[in-house]
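User: Hand in any protein.

Assistant:
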Amino acid sequence: MKTKSFILIFAGLFFAFSSFAQKSQEIKVWGNCGMCKKVIEGAASKAGAKEANWNEESKMLTVSFNSKKTDLQKIQASIAAAGYDTQDFTAPDEVYSKLHGCCQYDRKAKTSVASQQPAKEDCCKDGKCEKDKSCCKEGKCEKGKDCCKA
């Protein structure tokens, strides 16, 4: 009986501590349909996401992952490499153009996945800065200003 109790306690502690390294976050991913969902979730899993669930209506992907094995940048890069733009990466044009017609969506210009760097947030929209007015110049974030960085 003591052995059984010890095993149950040990197993409980193991699962409790292993869950600390797991993160759950949301990523904006553009797409349109069920085919998109399958590819987006598959690309996230390929990059190390333990769970991935993309919502077609909100365009939000909820991912759970072990932060010691992967991160949001790797997951987004994998999704972009599969042809889908994310909040920080733009899929290469040649990959996007091969998506089925129903999967092609209105695109935003951002940093390419090839550079593996996230795009700088543009906080100036329609000439109005959402963060600090001194950041905007002619409707764009002024170069060298830190206030527009995420």
Notes: Residues 70 and 107 are 26 Å apart (CA to CA).
